[in-house]
Amino acid sequence: xxxxxxxxxxxxxxxxxxxxxxxxxxxxxxxxxxxxxxxxxxxxxxxxxxxxxxxxxxxxxxxxxxxxxxxxxxxxxxxxxxxxxxxxxxxxxxxxxxxxxxxxxxxxxxxxxxxxxxxxxxxxxxxxxxxxxxxxxxxxxxxxxxxxxxxxxxxxxxxxxxxxxxxxxxxxxxxxxxxxxxxxxxxxxxxxxxxxxxxxxxxxxxxxxxxxxxxxxxxxxxxxxxxxxxxxxxxxxxxxxxxxxxxxxxxxxxxxxxxxxxxxxxxxxxxxxxxxxxxxxxxxxxxxxxxxxxxxxxxxxxxxxxxxxxxxxxxxxxxxxx
Length: 322
Known about the structure:
The protein contains 13 helices and 14 strands. By secondary structure, it is of the alpha/beta class. The chain has a domain at 145-184. Helix 1 (9-21) links the parallel strand 1 and strand 2 (27-31).
């Protein structure tokens, strides 16, 4: 069995390649839920849904999130209420789009949670409804909330404030520098799948933002300890290629929080828990620098521009475990 620590789009594409390479039933994905939020009274799990929709071949391939062939009538209608919304109200936010078909998933999740079901139970039900046979697990059934503190030198109106991750990522389009990231609730949240981490044949850290996608999973009690104990069977795939993130703010976040936005910076972040780092051909000249951090380095094409390349990356990653 292979267990994958997963964030959003990059992880979802890798997982699709992985289930093309091996039996889906042999794959467990532990998915970040620090990005989860409540909007319109609905519990939204963006990373979980991106993984499930991608594995179901239902994702909007251009955006990388949401459903393909989506419509947006409900969100258009919400804008009617913007003019009457009181200043301090969270009602009818129009900065976070939910497609008409995607809403059904959030309706279902919210109703089941209100009935007392756990997030892992609901996630399994949703995955089953989409005919996804890989095991998809939230990192915890307990709430962990990623909060971002904005830098003092950003827009004067919000400088130095702490906001939710989705507000940073979607409302402000992750264009504002950050000075701190914290995972509220991680100290007391109970991690799921510690047994899988102990017993899997190998563990793969997907090409996800190491700070806000993998960081929340690592913040849970016991996770880093297990990864460190079996470090030689942990393989990570760098989300940074030629000094940049392929999608999202990982490169800028790394620099803003004191890390180097290169595969060497990724290697330094993962060195305590990971024995091998897979990097792209564009960074081949940095392979010795990666290995100087105490990791074995594998160089290949890691840019998953199509499903065939994602499968090849998965096959190479499986072979990379020492």
